[in-house]
Amino acid sequence: MKVESEVGRLQAVLLHRPGPELENLVPRDLERLLFEEIPWLPQARREHAGFARQLEALGVHVYYVEDLLRDLARDPELREEMVESQLEASRLRRDPARAAVRRCLLEEVPPEELPDRLIAGITKEAVRRWKQTPSLSDLTAPLNPFYLDPLPSMYFTRDHGAMIGPNLLVSQMTHRARRRETAFLRTLLRHHPLFQGVKAWWEEPLPTGIEGGDILAVAPSALVLGLSERTSEAAIEVVAERLFAAGALREILVLQIPSRRAFMHLDTVFTMVDRERFLIYPGIEERLRLFRLAFDDGRVRAEETTDLARSLARLVGVDRVELLRSGGDDPITAAREQWADSTNVLAVAPGQVIAYDRNEATNRTLQRAGIEVLEIEGSELVRGRGGPRCMSLPLDRLPLG
Ligand SMILES: NC(=[NH2+])NCCC[C@H](N)C(=O)O
Where is the signal peptide (predicted)? Predict the structure, then answer.
């Protein structure tokens, strides 16, 4: 398994089917759990199944995080490791209730249900009988019902990490609300046979945030990284240093985007759709800052640069690249469609993408440019603020011939 480019023909991908975690969302928790709205689960699942069917029709192997975790949960030791790493990454880390939650998960929850239950969230109510006396936190349950929060953003598997060549960079999530998602990926990487032969680029977590939605491989040894609400300078510097030193990369282009909810990751405004073509939200172009990172005598050297198209061409190693603009020339349409993830398309091969059907103007622009747009429905899925790109973690792509 390896990924050397954002557009190489997709062979295998990791998804998560939206589940009861969405039904454990309540208005009070929306902001903290990084949602604006509550998707209607049965419809979100139908839409997600449509996405998976589209991928399978293209011959892509679709793996589901929850299925792989269920494979591991059969083994008592791995079950224990899964539970411990979830607790470590949660708010319960130093909570007196930790032991009771642990016992409930290991002694009461049937192993085959464990991954789904962890993702859905664990209520105080479910743990009550494992505690000796009612505690303050039991009494506050009506207002604050969860020991382990639901993970509603779990279906945005892209953010959990990124295959860079043959190995996986596991993200360091900026918000606590999403840290348990990556703990699952680490467990899979360590133990699941699917990942045999794939290593984490490094074991220890990075000091600060970097998320997969900000990582885009444009060529075998060249990355574009978003500097965004979720990915920090410090994390980019560490990643650059390590990947340069390992000989995995030659150059990195950093695109700084305004730190805003609507653009939480680079892939909400920019992605790659063909060997030499990119899709960008024009409302962002004026506000981008570009920085080039290279390895110079064992040190990462940064310099500011201008001209996105030229910088990308250099990175890809071609004379010129083409920037396609979302929203069909109308700033209002472009802003509306950006909010519905118009640029968050998933390239399944050079010049072939999966996109939400609702982004009509952007899809028309892509089609006119000769890009094949495979449309899926996503009116409930989009409420979580992500599209086909964020809903998929590519594990294997063919090299570009
Ligand atoms: N790569 C992406 N654009 N991911 C979208 C993530 C959306 C998710 N609700 C969050 O705020 O974290």
Answer: none
Residues with catalytic roles: 390
CB 59 within 8 A of CB 358: no
Tell which atom from ligand 1 comes closest to the C-alpha of 212: 1
pLDDT at 203: 86
Ramachandran assignment for 193, one of left (phi > 0), alpha (psi -120 to 50 degrees), beta (any other): alpha
Give pLDDT tens digits for 184-222: 999 999 999 999 999 999 988 888 899 999 999 999 999
How far apart CA 251 and CA 52 sit, in angstroms, is: 34
pLDDT digits (tens, 9 = 90+) for 34-72: 999 999 999 999 999 999 999 999 999 999 999 999 999
Q: Give me the architecture of the 10-65+152-397 domain, per CATH.
A: 5-stranded Propeller (3.75)
The residue whose two tokens read 């045999």 is 196
Ligand 1 pocket, CB under 6 A? 34-35, 153, 156, 158-159, 178, 213, 264-265, 267-268, 344, 384-386, 390
Structure tokens of 73? 């949960």
Residue of 25, 181, 265 best suited for mutating to test ligand 1, as the one with most atoms within 8 Å of CB: 265
Pocket test for ligand 1, best of 380, 385, 393 (most atoms within 8 A of CB): 385
DSSP-based helix, strand, coil % in the chain, nearest 5: 40, 25, 35
State whether the Cα torsion 301-304-308-311 is positive or negative. negative
User: Is residue 134 scored above 90 in pLDDT?
Assistant: no
Does the pLDDT of residue 250 top 90, yes or no? Answer: yes
Of the two residues 181 and 134, the one the predictor is more confident about is 181
Question: What percentage of the chain exceeds 90 in pLDDT?
Answer: 94
DSSP code string of 176-213: GGGHHHHHHHHHHHHH-GGGTT--BS-SSPPSS-B-GG
Q: What residues does 168 pair with on adjacent strands?
A: 163, 200
